[in-house]
Amino acid sequence: MIEWLDCVHSTNLYLKNLIKEGKISPCAVAARQQISGRGRMDRKFVSPVGGLYISFLLPWDDTFKITAKAAVAARRAIKKLSGLDCSIKWVNDLYYENKKVCGILAEGIGNRIVLGIGINWASNEKDLVDSAGSLKQNIGSIENLALELENQIYGPLENWLEEYKASCFLNGHEVDVFQAGKYVYSGMVRGVDDNCHLVLEQNGTQMVISTGEVSVRIK
Ligand code: BTN
């Protein structure tokens, strides 16, 4: 069951507060707007009306794997409702036409995970930051998108790893890797391995990246 809110500070924070108060139902909270939506590294996630902001309660699992699976779940839900194919930018973003249209944040609380997903569905692009885009299509309500997302998240999500690998937006790109906000190295992306870690090649040597962020190098 999804609890709907018109406006909230952050659906992740709202659900975490419910858990702290001992109220573990509903399993999902969605909002039409967030005042202080948050992303990885405590960055702001701009959340105007038109988008879907939703958090799910899940049993404990590796947050890295949950994030990767959620990216596939969001990709499938978007595809089903809009027909649009998004690519996945390792590790937690969906891109459409070179702009970020979805962000994912998995946070551990006790022996559970709060998984937050924000989708710029029918958002007005002037309300978003420059690097973000909106799916724009007038093809379905955010309520239906939320229900489809819920089905994907709690369903079997078959062949998710194959889809995660095949949809990797970074394949074949030169990237810079940052860890704890500092540049560490650059390399050519060769794909994603079975642990959802990024495989880079630098001077003929392959290395595996399991933390940090990457940005595509402008040629
Ligand atoms: C990122 O871009 O780094 C992740 C963004 C995650 C945004 C979603 S929207 C629903 C949930 N509530 C939040 O405050 N954040 C997540």
Give a structural overview.
A hairpin with a 2-residue loop joins β5 and β6 (99-109). The longest helix has 20 residues, at 63-82. With 219 residues, this protein is of the alpha+beta class. The N and C termini lie far apart (47 Å). It has helices at 11-20, 63-82, 142-154, 160-166, and strands at residues 2-5, 28-31, 52-59, 87-89, 93-96, 99-109, 112-119, 174-179, 182-192, 198-202, 205-209, 213-216. The chain is built from four helices and twelve strands; from the N terminus they run βαββαββββααβββββ. The protein is 23% helix and 33% strand. The model has no long low-confidence stretch (mean pLDDT 93). The chain has a seven-stranded mixed β-sheet, sandwiched between helices. A five-stranded antiparallel β-sheet has the order 11-10-9-8-12, with no helix packed on it. Bound molecules: biotin. Biotin (BTN) is lined by residues 10-12, 34, 37-40, 43, 45, 53-55, 92, 103-105, 116-118. Biotin (BTN) binds next to α1, β3, β6 and β7.
Total E-strand runs: 12
- What composes the largest sheet? 7 strands, mixed
Number of helices: 4
**Beta-strand residue percentage:** 25-35%
List all distinct small molecules, including ions and cofactors, that are bound in this structure.
biotin
Rg from alpha-carbon coordinates: 17 Å
